[in-house]
Amino acid sequence: MYIFITILIVIASILITLLVLVQNSKGGGLAAGFASGNQVMGAPRTADFLEKATWTLIAIIAVLSIAGAGFTKCRQAATEQESQVQVEMNDQPATAMPEEAE
What we know:
Layout: H1 2-22, H2 43-91
Helix pairs in contact: 1-2
C-alpha cells in the first residue's frame, strides 16, 4: 500500500508541475490564447480552472503524504515485531529431533 501511495504522489507531482508550467505568473499562459470575448471558455474561466486544479492537486498530495507517513509507521512496527520474533526464536534452545526407529 505504501508503494501505491508513493506512485500516486509522484503522478500528482508531475501533474501539478505541468499545471504550473501552463500558467503564467502575469495572468497569461494558457488563458492568454482564449482572450476573445465570445469564447465559452474565456480567459477568466480557463484561469479559474487551472487554479482550482492546482489547489486540488496540492490537497491530494498533502493527504497522500499524511497517509504515506501513517503506512510507514505501520510498516516499521511490523518490521520491528518480525525482528523481535526472530530474536526470540533464535534464543530458544534447539530441540533434538528424535531418530527414526528402523
